[in-house]
């Protein structure tokens, strides 16, 4: 096979295509080809790094510079989370290190299963990975950092601007729940990252190790595959992310002893796979198969060329002085460290008298059983505790801080979360008919009427909901998120005080006005309105729009969006699915997706009268027949033409079965559901007619 590495590493990277098609959860592609291609297009000066690395690799291949001993690479994990399953355990990361070491030292248990056709080609990279024992500041470490951040569902290069340890000294691995480009993980070839701080690997949490959120097999070997890229190995079929194409026979991975192939298109393990006239090395770590278990000797030589090069500073990682600096000189747990404090709670918004369980999550120690705890709960009962996971009750409303001091024989550390616990009064702030127009200059606080105090959460005050007088649907003020400077994936949340429905629940509606513009047609910003009837223990969606349907203007613009009077849209959300509950709180949650500014105004709870018939002199809504064993017709009679929307949702209001915009003409209008949808399962459903000035609701009973 040709070893024209420059052609492989430059031309193929630039012109290769990446399939962004969503993959099944159990099989996601690597994203290296895509990010490297983007980096080289945006920073063409990086091509010189590849040219130089190509020259050095050729020289290395002609010399006798193979490693005569195992080298060590210091590793640090940065785990982004919001205390869900994505906050993977230290044990899961140590398991990942174990697998990486076995694969890069050819000690993996399945290495003896390599097929006879390739057994004599098995190489041993002689690379050891160790979790760093010292931070860049020289502090005692176990090579793991946990970062609470709403960026974790849309991870990528944005994670690296939050935290990075010197990439000349550490192999950084950023972990998140989801990578924005859909990949399982990705890395940069040496010297191709947009900047030195971007060097390293980004991985989904369920592709780290073989335990916890991950699993043995394809997922467990993903970081072995990505480290191969990190050390300048391409896929066995060449430098693209589209295996299976016949044109891949014309591609090259720059390695002499890997047979030319088209690549495995899924996670199977067909050891008899033949393409490009060759028996394919399906078991190669740089394939997409489920039986990856080997590197070839040629790949090992290429890796050794990369780790002996100063391109991308891979050579600096394993030098003796750096191992001392990072504390990676020996195997084993190392010295005991002072614990790093962290905690979560069963709830962070409660009503007065509602119990809260606090759970300690201290880390960075060898023996967690020797940690001692001292909690302080402002406004809580008890006010202090030495228990590991105490239960606390708050008997007054307000926002209260929580402090946790952790200690062991090596030292102590503490964490203070100001305004961590929000305790809500059991009293009601708003009843039907009251309008919140954001006119109070102190919003979200309200000194004159404390029960009307709202709460705002976000990554920073500048990128979450805030009061503005630059635009308003009515009056002089509204709420604004300066989304045109926001980071994709940032979540901004607005919590309401208590609302109470007066009158028949099925006829109630939540009315609000908003204005939003996209910057590009591909923007996927999301606005969700949820409700809770149990003081925030659980939330259910009442409104959800994402992407194009969220926009209130059809144009796009990169300039800051300031809505005119015609750019506002009023939404009327039925609250019929509240059932018998008459008291609730609201949550407005916006997730940035690259779009422009969004505004919110005129939040109001209203009711529809005459719920039993849901009709008046100018409008009627009927379902014929009802109950029905088949799909009925929806009959609407109006006096004046109007554009309206018909919605059908389940009785809990969680699943939207049908939605259609319809121009209602004067007189009788009909929608034949038998021509619109498949019959849903038997049960009760809400049929909503949403008009500009009102919402009508009828219950439909679907019989078996």
General description of the model:
A hairpin with a 2-residue loop joins strand 18 (398-408) and strand 19. By secondary structure, the protein is an alpha+beta fold. It folds into four domains: 15-232 and 300-326, Collagenase (Catalytic Domain); 343-424, Sandwich (Immunoglobulin-like), CATH 2.60.40; 430-607, Jelly Rolls; 615-702, Macroglobulin (MG2) domain (Immunoglobulin-like, Sandwich). It is built from nine helices and 40 strands. Helix content is 12%, strand content 31%.
- Number of self-contained structural domains: 4
Rg from Cα? 30 Å
**CATH H-tier superfamily of the largest domain:** Collagenase (Catalytic Domain)
Provide the CATH top-level class of the largest domain: Alpha Beta
Strand content: 25-35%
What about the largest sheet? 7 strands, mixed
Number of strands: 40
Rounded mean pLDDT is 88
Query: Distance between termini?
Result: 65 Å
The low-confidence parts are: 1-26, 608-616
General form: globular
Fraction of residues in helices? 10-25%
- Note the total helix count: 9
């Amino acid at each position: 096979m040709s070893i024209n590495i420059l052609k492989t590493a430059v031309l193929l990277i630039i012109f290769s295509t990446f399939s962004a098609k969503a993959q099944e959860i159990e099989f996601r592609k690597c994203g290296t080809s895509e990010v490297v291609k983007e980096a080289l297009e945006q920073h063409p000066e990086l091509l010189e790094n590849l040219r130089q690395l190509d020259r050095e690799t050729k020289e290395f291949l002609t010399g006798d510079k193979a490693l005569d001993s195992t080298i060590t690479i210091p590793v640090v994990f940065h785990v982004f989370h919001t205390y869900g399953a994505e906050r993977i355990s230290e044990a899961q990361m140590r398991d990942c290190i174990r697998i990486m070491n076995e694969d890069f030292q050819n000690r993996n248990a399945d290495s003896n299963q390599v097929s006879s056709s390739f057994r004599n080609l098995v190489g041993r990279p002689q690379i050891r990975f160790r979790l760093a024992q010292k931070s860049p500041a020289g502090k005692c470490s176990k090579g793991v950092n946990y970062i609470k951040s709403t960026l974790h569902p849309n991870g990528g290069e944005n994670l690296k601007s939050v935290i990075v340890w010197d990439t000349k000294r550490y192999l950084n691995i950023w972990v998140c729940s989801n990578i924005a480009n859909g990949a399982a993980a990705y890395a940069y070839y040496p010297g191709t990252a947009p900047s030195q701080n971007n060097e390293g690997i980004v991985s989904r949490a369920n592709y780290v190790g073989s335990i916890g959120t991950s699993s043995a097999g394809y997922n467990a070997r993903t970081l072995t595959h990505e480290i191969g890229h990190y050390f300048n190995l391409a896929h066995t079929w060449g430098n693209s992310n589209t295996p299976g194409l016949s044109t891949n026979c014309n591609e090259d991975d720059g390695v002499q002893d890997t047979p030319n192939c088209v690549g495995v298109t899924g996670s199977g393990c067909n050891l008899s796979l033949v393409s490009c006239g060759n028996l394919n090395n399906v078991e190669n770590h740089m394939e997409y198969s489920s039986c990856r278990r080997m590197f070839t000797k040629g790949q090992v030589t290429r890796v050794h060329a990369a780790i002996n090069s100063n391109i991308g500073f891979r050579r600096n990682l394993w030098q003796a002085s750096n191992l001392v600096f990072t504390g990676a000189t020996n195997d084993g747990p190392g010295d005991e460290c002072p614990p790093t404090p962290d905690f979560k709670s069963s709830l962070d918004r409660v009503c007065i008298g509602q119990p809260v369980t606090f759970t300690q999550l201290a880390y960075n120690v060898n023996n967690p059983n020797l940690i001692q705890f001292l909690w302080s709960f402002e406004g809580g009962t008890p006010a202090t505790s030495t228990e590991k996971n105490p239960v606390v009750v708050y008997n007054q409303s307000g926002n209260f801080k929580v402090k946790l001091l952790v200690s062991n024989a090596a030292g102590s550390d503490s964490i203070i979360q100001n305004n961590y616990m929000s305790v809500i009064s059991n009293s009601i702030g708003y009843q039907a008919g009251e309008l919140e127009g954001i006119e109070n200059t102190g919003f979200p606080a309200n000194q004159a009427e404390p029960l009307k105090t709202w709460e705002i959460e976000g990554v920073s005050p500048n990128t979450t909901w805030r009061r503005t007088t630059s635009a308003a649907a009515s009056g002089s003020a509204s709420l604004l998120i300066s989304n045109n400077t926001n980071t994709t994936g940032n979540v901004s949340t607005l919590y309401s005080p208590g609302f109470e429905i007066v009158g028949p629940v099925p006829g109630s509606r939540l009315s609000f006005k908003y204005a939003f513009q996209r910057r590009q047609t591909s923007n996927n910003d999301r606005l969700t309105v949820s409700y809770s009837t149990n003081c925030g223990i659980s939330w259910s969606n009442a409104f959800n729009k994402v992407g194009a349907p969220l926009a209130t203007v059809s144009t796009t613009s990169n300039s800051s969006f300031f809505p005119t009077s015609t750019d506002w849209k009023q939404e009327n959300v039925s609250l019929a699915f509240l059932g018998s509950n008459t008291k609730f709180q609201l949550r407005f949650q916006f997730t940035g997706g690259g779009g422009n500014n969004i505004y919110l105004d005129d939040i109001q709870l209203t009711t529809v009268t005459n719920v039993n018939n849901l009709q008046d002199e100018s409008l009627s809504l009927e379902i014929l027949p009802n109950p029905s064993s088949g799909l009925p017709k929806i009959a609407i009679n109006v006096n004046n033409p109007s554009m309206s929307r018909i919605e059908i949702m389940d009785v809990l209001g969680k699943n939207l079965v049908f939605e259609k915009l319809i121009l209602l003409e004067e007189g009788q209008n009909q929608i034949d559901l038998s021509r619109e949808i498949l019959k849903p399962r038997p049960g009760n459903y809400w049929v909503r007619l949403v008009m500009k000035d009102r919402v009508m609701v009828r219950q439909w009973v679907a019989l078996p």
